[in-house]
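Q: Got a minute? One more chain.
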Amino acid sequence: MVDNRKPYEQAFFASKPLWYTKFLRTFLLWQLVKFIIINIKMTLMLLRSHRG
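A: Always. Here it is, folded:
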């Protein structure tokens, strides 16, 4: 099936982020919390893989 979209139509552009999404992307405390959570998850994954 052929797609009939043309370049630069509305369907080609990404949606605009909500104000809350932009806030979370720029809020340093939230970024720090997410960084810590990701590091804890990676550490737990490594510890599980090295048992045995």
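A: The CA atoms of residues 38 and 44 lie 10 Å apart.
Q: Perfect, thanks.
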